């Protein structure tokens, strides 16, 4: 990282640079991110989940954003002053009608999805997988005390071919976005609701992070974009034995208030325990 320097000039034309802020090494940042308490990230997950659910609700019922995007609304923050002087935007010689639109789809595709990609590029999968709102919602069956109905090891086809399954779902989802979900609020709301229900059902059947490991299409995006780890990702293979590493499933012990492992071995090698080992063995 670049340090901020102050320069003191002396009569003999020599300069002395004073470091106003200590230099923070990337390794220190990695350790700081990996040591964030689970309770703190639990609050972050709650905030993201509530925001995401509000966005999904707005896809079905939104009486606000149409007023914000109305070109005739003088108080709109999204109003383009250029259109007041020349309201005709021509396409092939025909003026387009300026109509208000819902902000939900644009916020999802233009802000939320790029932000998630930026997080995994910079902070690595371990940060994203600890704050992912879909992961949080998928764990509702576990929070309700429901036990997994099946053992994922009894489904060897999915264990061997999950990358193909994830890529196929990613391809189908990408085409659905282009053809149906891109700007249609209702269709996008149904698509996201179905995704949440699918994640909950997968965890209900197999437990753990079975949705994240075997089905979620964003998992293969993480693998392609970050490789073994992101720019600020940690190196789990250098950690001491029996250490809670990266985005490993964990919980807080009520008696000691210390974090402890909640791993049920739903995948081995696990990307949440040692991403580099899992990456090279897949």
Give an overview of the whole structure.
This protein has one domain. It has 13 helices and 6 strands. The protein has helices at residues 26-34, 38-60, 65-68, 81-85, 104-122, 125-131, 133-138, 140-143, 156-181, 185-206, 210-215, 217-226, 275-281, and strands at 5-9, 15-19, 90-91, 94-95, 250-252, 259-261. Strands 1-2 form a two-stranded antiparallel sheet. Strands 3-4 form a two-stranded antiparallel ribbon. A two-stranded antiparallel sheet has the order 5-6. Strand 1 and strand 2 form a beta hairpin. It is elongated. Residues 1-21 have low confidence and may be disordered.
**Large-scale geometry:** elongated
Helix content: 40-55%
Q: Residue ranges: pLDDT <50 for 5 or more in a row?
A: 1-21
Amino-to-carboxy terminus distance: 33 Å
Radius of gyration: 24 Å
Main sheet attributes: strand count, strand direction, barrel closure: 2 strands, antiparallel
Q: Provide a count of the helices.
A: 13
| Oligomer category | single chain
H-E order: EEHHHHEEHHHHHHHHEEH
State which percent range the strand residues make up.
5-15%
Mean pLDDT: 81
Largest beta sheet: what is the strand line-up?
1-2
Number of strands: 6
- Structural class by secondary-structure content: mainly alpha
- Whole-number tally of structural domains: 1
